[in-house]
Amino acid sequence: MADVQLKEIAKSFGTVEVIKGIDLEIGHGEFVVFVGPSGCGKSTLLRMIAGLEDISRGELRIDGRLCNDIAPRDRGIAMVFQSYALYPHMSVYDNVGFSLKLARVPREERDAKVRDAARILQMEHLLDRRPAQLSGGQRQRVAIGRAIVRHPKVFLFDEPLSNLDAALRVDMRMEIARLHQELGATMVYVTHDQVEAMTLADKIVVLDHGEVQQVGAPLELYHRPANLFVAGFIGSPKMNLLPVNVTGSRGRSIQIGSVDVMATPFDIGAAAAGAPKELVLGIRPHSLRVVAAGAAKIPAEVKLVEHLGNETVIKAQLASGAAVLAIVAGDAGLKPGEKVGLTFDRAEAHLFDAAGRRLLRSSETAGGRR
Amino acid sequence: MRKFLCLVAVVVLVFVYLFPYTWMVLSAFRYPADTFAIPPKLFFEISFDGFRNVFRQSVFGLYLMNSLIITLFSVAITMLVATPAAYALVRISRGGTAFLLTVLIARMIPAIALVVPIYIIGNLTRQLDTYQIMIVVTVAFNLPFAIWMVRGFFLDLPANLVDAARIDGASEWQVLTQVAAPLARGGIFATSVFVFVGAWNEFLFALILTSGRTTTATVALLSFRTSQGIEWDTISAGAFMVSLPVIVFAFIMQRYLVEGLTMGAVK
Fold it and tell me: Which of A165, B101, B125, B172 is deepest in the core (most CB within 10 A)?
């Protein structure tokens, strides 16, 4: 177990800066997930921690030790790759024990450690096989076993479940969560799958264009996104975003409205006085409720209804032609073409300014951009 | 129809490739009169005179041994240098391309242009008619090709495997010897087959730099062209024996040759 500190970490390829001065603290035994769209720099950042990419600027400390120029093998880390990266010419046993062999660990001790890792991952029966004889899930298990056997201070996972099918991905996700509980190790995990991020992480780091957009616990990111990017990225389906105008303000409150949204007051505290004229209203599909037409803040026409059994996904069109998604529990009994009203709880809705920053409610004292 | 045309093309190709060799092998086992008979004789009396003459008229066994020593040492040294060099060129990001181009340019100089300078160097250093000079020259001429070819096989290896080995604690040398080279084994063997064939067939430098003690089999074949004419059965028997090691080596390496030449084709 160890902590990892990133101070003003940057990475440039020629003149292009792909990681732009990241500050981050990862605590002992914490499970931190880097999440973001393709090309946001999450894998590069992980590879910089691993020592597989040079650090152009800034400081990386693992367990307090400056690691910028330390070789990967001396950083006390282990890494699991998306492609498994198992040595195809070696058996599972040799794959798992390779690092111990390189470290000249005595044969008996090596054997015990390999078998212990195999027991933890329930793959004792696979030890004599070659990687080509294993399924995707088994290969990933071996890759994790190869990491475990080294007893690293920090585990690094680079999209480890991306090559697995949906069902196996769920199983392996639970396996990794169990492993984290069992080993209590510090883990840094990269994924573009926000479900993995939400379910595994103690702390999520949302990245975009080489910059940290927000750091926080999964539910904090879900309920209090710092900006439009995080609001759109975290949560599935995506948050509905509707342009609105500020039609008036009184004290700590502003009134918003648009052709789609009827006048609605919002309490944004001291910011009300200088609130910009144009804002974006963000409402999650699960926060929208369907009511009778004319009795709601947002009049809409149902365009598509998907019955999933436990819930119903409704795609509706607003007066401006904008489309929104609403998810209601059970069977909503709606049909395409039906006129409905959509309503929402203001406490679950968000306002964003032109720069994409979320406006804080007066009840909030923390959050916002880090 | 398409299949039939393919078959015809294959038959024609095989004929074009194998006919000269088959004719040479047949000539080795028959009397010269039968070789030049018109119309050609399909059935003939088998003769081993050619083989007998080869060993009676020269120390052909020594020449074959010379070829073998020079070739084996050349292949071993070339591959021992080319493999780490190719790996380093794959791993080094700066300056690697310039070096590779330099290597390629060195290979573009025609061998004939270097014969005289190398002869003079050999003479000055008293290395003429030694194994050393033949091995050094053969290695020098085969190394650029070998580096380029092995580099291609290393480039095909997934980068993550090298990363994984580095994280597992392997030094660059250990990554090469325990991960990269075993995985590119097919390619390395395929390259060694090409180097073997090139070294075994070497003629120009052997002709100039050796005389008697280290003469190679390819050069020795020339001696069967005498003032009385060409002894076709003898020269064919000699050529047949010279060709055998290459065929045997290629057969032994066939599995690796196919594995190497198709490496990267199927992921």
Answer: B172
Do B179 and A87 count as a contact with CB atoms less than 8 A apart?
yes
CA atoms of A356 and A359, how far apart (whole Å): 9
- Are B20 and B235 a contacting pair, CB within 8 Å? no
Let me know if residue A357 belongs to a domain.
Answer: no
- Using alpha carbons, list the distances in angstroms from residue B41 to B30, B37, B47, B169, B241: 10, 7, 14, 68, 23
Domain final position from A193, A227, A261:
A227
β-bridge pairing A349-352 and A16-26: unpaired
Residue A64's domain spans which residues?
4-227
| Predicted pLDDT of residue A370 | 40
Is there a single domain that holds both residue A203 and residue A263?
A: no
Mutation for testing the A interface, residue in B162, B168, B174, B185 having most A CBs under 10 Å: B168
The verdict on residue A288 lying in a domain is yes
Inter-chain Cβ pairs, chain A and chain B, closer than 8 A: 55
Q: Say which of A47, A83, A150 has its CB closest to residue B158.
A: A83
Tell me whether residue A328 is in a domain.
yes
- What Å distances lie between residue A127 and A40, A91, A118, A149, A163, CA to CA? 37, 7, 8, 14, 22
This complex has an ipTM of 0.82
CB < 8 Å to A47, chain B? 163
Q: Summarize pLDDT for A118-158 with one digit per residue, the tens.
A: 988 888 999 999 999 998 889 988 999 999 898 899 999 99
Quick check: A103 and B169 CB within 8 A? yes
Contact B167 A50 (CB under 8 A): yes
Same domain, A69 and A214: yes
Banded model confidence at residue B260, pLDDT cuts 50, 70, 90: low
- Looking at CA atoms only, how far is residue B252 from chain A in angstroms? 21
Q: Does A103 touch chain B (CB under 8 A)?
A: yes
Nearest to B27 by CA among B39, B15, B40: B40
- Same structural domain, A141 and A72: yes
Residues on chain B touching A72 (C-beta within 8 angstroms): 163, 166-167
Query: Is there a single domain that holds both residue A161 and residue A222?
Result: yes
φ, ψ for residue A8 (rounded to 5)? 50, 40
Count CB atoms within 10 A of the CB of residue B27: 22
* Whether A140 and A15 share a structural domain: yes
B chain contacts of residue A88, beta-carbon cutoff 8 Å: 183
**Residues of B with CB below 8 A from A99's CB?**
168-169
Structural domains of chain B, with CATH: 1-47 (no CATH), 59-261 (1.10.3720.10)
Task: Based on the fold, state whether residues A34 and A142 are members of the same structural domain.
Answer: yes
pLDDT tens digits for A223-249? 999 999 999 999 889 999 999 999 888
Q: Are residues A251 and A211 in the same domain?
A: no
CATH number (domain holding residue A168): 3.40.50.300
Domain count, chain A: 2
